[in-house]
Amino acid sequence: MAGQSDPHGSAFSAAELEFLAEDEMVEIVPNMRMDPLNLICGDFGPFRPQIATQVPMWLAVALKKRGKCTIRPPEWMSVEKLTQVLEAERDSERFFQPLPFHYVEISRLLFDHARDDIPDVYMVRSLIEDIKDVRFHKIGTGLEIISERTHALKLKNLSAMEVNIVRPFVVRALQTFYKLDSPEMIQESDRRANRRPQAADHGPKRQLRTDR
């Protein structure tokens, strides 16, 4: 994974996060008749025309590509809901609004594969981008409080992408502070201070003679 090949980068790549998000359930409306699918991850169906059913995102995308269904966007992807979330994010400087953990990846998948199923798609996309920007700004502000006295950091309601970006930085910062505050580092600092050369003592200074 990305985190294994690049210890200073994010834990997962964008493609890996999207792959994980494909297991999220969404609602589709089939336009065909098909028996249930018995898969390792679960049973889905039966599929009947115009009868909504829940399936994983990856299956919804596969059926959509074949023209076998339409995908119903989640309730939180409406203009009304997203506008409320954006206003709440702007009003609160410290708290994050609850959104699906994979809201970024889910919206991207739907924009890529089911654009025609999303009402007001351009407004929805714009609102999601604005929400991301506001949340990233608050994350950056929250990270400014990290200091040598910080032992843990709690940021509630972060999404997968946000956690993925923040976690490597926070972990490295806390590890650095921990090392600097460890007894071994303090003792080493004291030893170095004690080894500093002292000013040479040449004995009492001779008084200068003055002519009377």
How does this model look, in words?
- Helix 3 packs parallel to helix 5 and helix 4 runs parallel beside helix 6.
- It contains eight helices and five strands.
- Strand 2 and strand 3 form a beta hairpin.
- The model has no long low-confidence stretch (mean pLDDT 82).
- The strands form two sheets. A three-stranded antiparallel β-sheet has the order 4-1-5. It has a two-stranded antiparallel ribbon with strand order 2-3.
- It has a domain of 133 residues: Methane Monooxygenase Hydroxylase, Chain G, domain 1 (Up-down Bundle), CATH 1.20.58.
- It is 48% helix and 9% strand.
- The protein has 212 residues and is mainly alpha-helical.
**Count of helix runs:** 8
Mean pLDDT reading: 82
In whole angstroms, how far apart are the ends?
Answer: 89 Å
Fraction of residues in helix:
40-55%
- Please identify the structural class as seen in this structure: mainly alpha
Low-confidence stretches: none
Strand order of the largest sheet: 4-1-5
% residues in beta strands = 5-15%
Number of strands: 5
CATH class bucket of the domain at 2-22 and 73-184: Mainly Alpha
Our Rg estimate from Cα atoms comes to 29 Å
CATH topology name of the domain at 2-22 and 73-184, in short, is Methane Monooxygenase Hydroxylase, Chain G, domain 1
The succession of helices and strands, N to C, reads: HHEEEEHEHHHHH
Shape: elongated
Subunit structure: Component of the GINS complex.
Domain DNA replication complex GINS protein PSF2 N-terminal: 14-71
Family: Belongs to the GINS2/PSF2 family.
Pfam family, one: PSF2_N
